[in-house]
Design brief:
By secondary structure, this protein is of the alpha+beta class. Helix content is 17%, strand content 42%.
Length: 190
């Protein structure tokens, strides 16, 4: 009987360890971003940053002006363009974390192919206290990304224990891509 008791205790120990391992959160979950959820067209207030994201649009080709020259860009996927208004409460900052999280879990960083555009929100553009910036976030996404996603914005590129705005567009059908969107014209309407 004592041998059976010993084997039972070992098996029970393994089951307890497996249960603890399965239910213990990962390190990234413990030290990850502090999420501030919002809704489209409503302000999301974080510690310092306040952002409002408008309705996204899709395009096959985009056009914008850089240093007096008109640039045209196409992509193997589609362009996802999200209008964003941002402001800060306390100190000057930049928005380094600019990610589109598709409904299937794929993450798309904002495209650096539009960094020279005046209308695009890039990491080098600062946001000053008391001033509201109106910009466009531009992503290159896979052509099958047509039903929603979540916009993730933060002051750090990879936020750890800092604020991150999470604005879901999960039930918003993005519609068919337009043939061409002029970023400067769209920006002028913001």
């Amino acid at each position: 009987m004592s041998r059976l008791t010993g084997v039972t205790a070992i098996v029970a120990g393994f089951v307890a360890l497996a249960a603890m391992r399965a239910t213990t959160p990962h390190f990234i979950d413990i030290t990850g971003p502090i999420g501030f959820s919002g809704t489209p067209d409503k302000a999301v207030r974080m510690d310092n940053l306040v952002v409002t994201a408008g309705q996204p649009r899709l395009a096959r080709t985009i056009r914008f002006r850089v240093a007096g020259q008109v640039e045209t860009r196409d992509t193997g996927g589609v362009w996802l363009i999200v209008p964003v208004a941002s402001q800060v409460a306390h100190h000057t900052t930049n928005i380094y974390g600019r990610t589109w999280l598709a409904t299937d879990g794929r993450r798309y960083a904002a495209s650096d192919r539009v960094d020279g555009a005046d209308s695009a929100l890039t990491p080098i553009k600062t946001i000053q206290p008391g001033l509201v910036r109106h910009d466009l976030l531009v992503f290159e996404v896979h052509p099958d990304v047509t039903v929603g996603g979540t916009l993730l914005l933060s002051e750090q590129r990879f936020p750890q224990l800092t604020a991150e705005a999470r604005i879901p567009f999960l039930k918003t059908p993005l519609g068919a891509p337009e043939a061409m969107i002029d970023l400067d014209d769209l920006h002028a309407k913001l």
